[in-house]
Amino acid sequence: MIKVEELAKKYGDVEALTSVDMEVEEGEIVGVLGANGAGKSTLVQILTGQIDRDSGTVDVLDLDPEKKPVKLRDKLGILPEREDPPSFLTGKEYLHFVADVRDEEIDKDHWEEEFNLEGKMDKLTYNLSKGERQKLMIVQALFHEPDLVFIDEPLVNLDPVIQERAKELFKQRREAGGTVFLCTHVVSLAEEICDRVFFLKDGEITEVIEEPENLTEKFLEEE
Amino acid sequence: MNKEEGLIKRMIKEEWRMHSTLYKGRSFAFFPVLVFIFTFAFAYATAEYSTLGSEPVGTALTVIAAFLGLGIGNLNYSGRDAWRNVLGDTSYLVYSSRTLPISRKKILGQLVAKELIYYTGLFLLPVALGGLIGTGFQITMGVFLMAPAFIAGIIGGLILAQFSLDGPSLHLFNFERNEFMEPVADKSLMDVLRSSGGFFKIFFSLGLLTAFYWYVVLYFPMTQVLLNNPLISYSVMIGLLNLTVYNWVNRFDGLEDYMHLPISRRKVLSGKEEAYMAITAPTTFVLITVSWWYYPQHYILALATALGMTLYNLAVAIYTTGLEPNDRMFNTWTFIKYMMLENIVAGPLLALSIIYTPALRPLYMGTLGFAVLASMAYLYYTDEERRVNIPGLTHR
User: Which CATH superfamily is domain A2-84+146-222 in?
Assistant: First the structure.
């Protein structure tokens, strides 16, 4: 599903990714765990065709993200790190907008109920709380049931009830045969829901944990 | 230094760094120099070679100061939005100040004060110096009046902004799926409509200028010597001024806001083009028609000119600034490039419109036709790959 070899990326003199190698199979939740600035967001942006790599090879769903970024993103769900949807649309309008771009239908009522967004969807998104905006972004990443979902720091602003709901949804994606690629620095989250975890440090995968347990200790050792 | 002074100073530093970092310092530092050179050239040419003499230059500078003040007063519009953190990095310090023990009213006051100091140095002083030196120091009264005009403009802008803030809800339209527009175009229209001031801010700026232009043309006989057909000259001007609309449709988002969706750069750009045309076409139609009502000559030609120039302006704005006109136009070299490209068409058209007679029609139509065809060719017949080097489209 995802195959990466010797991936490197620089921003000016700063090496964001030095040499990343990884493989991700169908039907698993994989976590990329790393401290702030480890290169997690850069990795997601390259794998989803948002930015170009400097070197290395990348294959996602049999496509090169650099050559076919739009075709690839059509098959993906992406939850970017920033939680803000566009400010001057209502929640409902934003979801219509995304559905329009994806040329898909959205069962708005279902998602309203799923994330306790009743009564909120007609408000302009800048009038929603951070958590509510985050919920909208989760919905836009999942509503079209993609085979592969990229999630960058998913639960930061959510209350515990919704955190559980979101985790449940990620697991449901896996049970349906989908793959979830999750970047986070929240060790407990990776430990709880990931099947495998990649440690990313200074732009390199330093370790692959096949059975994620006692990650806090390992994370501290790594750092 | 007290808390308020510290904040203003840091806001100025922030804005300067934002602009100078974006344009590698030296280039941005040339902006006031460029403003000085333009004003000097305008003042010198008017004083020495026109029948107007130097006095109107002084009036023009006073009016410019008033308009600048009006713009800053209207900052209350964007000030309100800045509080909602939709202006991105440009409002960073304002946004972070929410966590400081200082009232919203005070921070907005600081913001206005900052703009006042910043743009006085960046724009007002070079304009005053250019005008003074260009006319051989004959317009001291006009320059002297710049300060009160500037302050009056700010107050007027604030009052108008307050009217808008207290006015009825601007949520007149909703985003709906439709077959007629790109989703990005729809969204961009909603952004402009629902941001503080709504469409009023566009009508306001273009309408004020229209009123000023026709006031001068209709009540100052001197202009009759200069302009054979003011309606056509006006239509060229409106086409050029529509750049502000392109700025507005790009103000509230950037390419990175769409990159988690399956949408190409070309589609985002098409959406912005559509939104620009959706606003400018009816606005231009109304302004030309109203002007024709007062000056009933060459309506069709004026309308064609305004719409043609509006299209040409779009093509040049995209070529020089991509999806970031608000930031990139501050770059001196980008600005020069923009002006030069505009002048390839606007220069001859303005010259021809000034001396216009029916005998010049073929030449005039030829120039306008060239502008329209060149714009169409650039906007619609260049493929995505060839657009890679458009500023702001470097993300995939």
Answer: P-loop containing nucleotide triphosphate hydrolases (3.40.50.300)
